[in-house]
Amino acid sequence: MLLNHKAISKVLGAVLALCGTGMLLPAAVSIAYSERSSAVGFAACAAPLIIAGIFLITRPSKGISELRMRDGFFIVAASWVLMSMAGALPFVINGDIPSYVDAVFETASGFSTTGSTILTDVESLSHGSLFWRSLTHWLGGMGVLVLTIALLPKLGIGGQKIMRAETTGPTMDKSSFTVNEGAKKLYLIYFGLTAALFAALMLLGLSPFDAINHSMATLGTGGFSTYNASIGAFGSAAVEMVITLFMLLAGINFGLYATALSGGIKKVVKDPELRMYLAVIACASVFIAVMLTVRNIYADFLQSLRYSLFQTVSITTTTGFGTADFDLWPVPCKLV
């Protein structure tokens, strides 16, 4: 049961390098907002991670064999632990989250797109740390390993075993794509949807910082916001509806987007998973809206539908954004 150590070290090196490179973005954001200590914290963490990653990647490739399934499972498990532990360091160094244990929790929540938080006052964080929280969501939403797989041919390693160990549910049609081509296509779709949401939020009046953070958190289906009141802080029905749409899109199997782009629209429309997904959301939203209207929680049915639809999509896709305190809703609504 020996592991393929040489190949594994190269993949983990790529993960470390990607994580370190990602930290340069919040460092730049911190510089833009004149947050010197935050910028130094991110840069100080990024440099050793990139150096360590490059060292592992550039080690001699002689004797490296194809990855096996157990290698794939080990890489997936080790990568999540490494990313969570390394990604927590800037929070501690710049003082935004002094406790390393708390910082690891926050980072693991981000990369896994869980969205749980130990923070009671999100708005007290530096802009760099807020951006890093959202970026961990975005990277974790599609999967850092999926991005790594797209780069593996450069390392002379196949990524199919990692893809099998990393992904859950339906994946892309293997007759149409190789694993590496599929990973690249998935990320292009992911990036395109993120860019589209960013543009839409900018048009609705959000600042570039708020727009990019909420775009990453939405497409990553994680729900970290830059405000304590989450999306409710904007008080805008238009913003809520746009984010609702993109949460809905982010919750769809991305393999279907690739199929649609390849001309398989009819196959997508007939997909039973997609139909069930949309039907559950539609039925739940209408039922909750009717209940909220009957109980006079909101002024009328349209207002009830506004809040029920947003919360239903947010919870169904596990995004976790909020616009209303649904704990005050009737028990049948919470049950549904």
Topology readout:
Elements: H1 5-32, H2 36-57, H3 69-93, H4 100-111, H5 127-142, H6 144-151, H7 160-166, H8 179-203, H9 208-219, H10 237-250, H11 254-261, H12 265-269, H13 272-294, H14 301-316, H15 331-335
Helix pairs in contact: 1-2, 1-3, 1-5, 2-3, 3-4, 3-7, 4-5, 5-6, 5-9, 6-8, 8-9, 8-10, 8-11, 10-14, 13-14
Description:
With 336 residues, the protein is mostly helical. It contains 15 helices and no strands. It is globular and about 70 Å long.
What keyword list fits this structure?
336 residues, mainly alpha, 0% strand
Structural class from helices and strands?
Answer: mainly alpha
Helical stretch tally: 15
Shape: globular
Estimate what percentage of residues fall within beta strands: under 5%
The proportion of residues forming helix, as a percent range, comes to: 55-70%
Q: Topology as H/E string?
A: HHHHHHHHHHHHHHH
Biggest beta sheet summary: none
Question: What is shown here, in short?
Answer:
The chain is built from 15 helices and no strands. It has 336 residues and is an all-alpha fold.
